[in-house]
């Protein structure tokens, strides 16, 4: 997972540079592309961190994670079922 986080850092830095160049050149399109790349980099870093946290939680307490997954599935199923009854 470290390469994904590293890729995110690189993408965020490249986005910052692209946004700065667009700002200096007065190119709004380039600024927006830079901002999008920066946000994609941050999102990639957050996903890498979340997967690391999930992996650690699963290895330290697998039954608690399983119980949480079952509870989330039950809630989603109940919401989906209630939504289907409203449509009929």
UniProtKB/TrEMBL annotation:
Segments spanning the bilayer are 63-82
**Family under the similarity heading:** Belongs to the UPF0337 (CsbD) family.
Identify the species of origin.
Paraburkholderia sabiae
**Record keywords:** Membrane, Transmembrane, Transmembrane helix
Domain CsbD-like: from-to ranges: 5-55
Return the Pfam families for the record.
Answer: CsbD
| Protein name listed in UniProt | CsbD family protein
Chaperone keyword on record? no
């Amino acid at each position: 997972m470290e390469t994904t986080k590293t890729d995110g850092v690189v993408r965020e830095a490249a986005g910052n540079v692209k946004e700065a160049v667009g700002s200096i050149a007065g190119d709004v399109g380039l600024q927006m592309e830079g901002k999008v790349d920066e946000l994609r980099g941050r999102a990639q870093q957050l996903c890498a961190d979340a997967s690391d946290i999930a992996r650690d939680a699963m290895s330290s307490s697998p039954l608690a994670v399983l119980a949480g997954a079952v509870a989330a599935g039950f809630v989603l199923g109940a919401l989906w079922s209630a939504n289907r009854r409203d449509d009929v």
